[in-house]
Write a structure and sequence with these properties.
There is one protein chain. The protein is α+β, with helices and mostly antiparallel strands. The protein contains six helices and six strands. The chain has a four-stranded antiparallel sheet with strand order 3-4-5-6, sandwiched between helices. Strand 1 and strand 2 form a beta hairpin. The longest helix is centred in the N-terminal third of the chain and has 19 residues. It is globular and about 45 Å long.
Amino acid sequence: MGRFVTMFALTSCVLACLLGGCEQRRVVRGSPMLGSLPGAEVGERIRPTERDRKPGAAPVIDEEDARLRVEHEDGSVTLISHTGRQLMAHIYTTLDQGEGELFVEQVLSDMSRKEFAQRGVDPLEGFKYLKNNERAIRKLFNTIPMGEYTPGTFMQPQGGGVYRLSAPKLLHRELAWTFMDIVFERGGWRLRWFG
């Protein structure tokens, strides 16, 4: 019996040492602005459980559920832009990938497409124009990297449902384009135009 007690005490001591030295870590990272771009590496986001929610709070949306670019089995693509920041990512990606038709269909606003039609211009010409001015767009985006979440940047109403995201006034002299106008259509933000 004494031998059993000694073995039990020794085993308990070893387990206590092993378990006491164990450390559990969780790495929590945010979602970078252009995290949806091809080749971007984004850290894992820890999803809160339903019991962590406060009564009346919005449903928990996981990073997986909130993908910005959904590619369907039939080859079609759906772009999701619930924020101006997400719209900026789609503008950047469609220009970079040369996806003119996708840009016209899901990034450009109906308002702008109607304006192109009234002038007798194909909206794809607008895409080509922006593609030729991609550097000016990137410079503007660098001044408001988090869209409407950039400190000091506000969504200023322009009338007719159009909102403006502007670069800080101190940088206006350095930029060819100082603002981006956006409008909420078809369940998401769409590009009105740059200026």
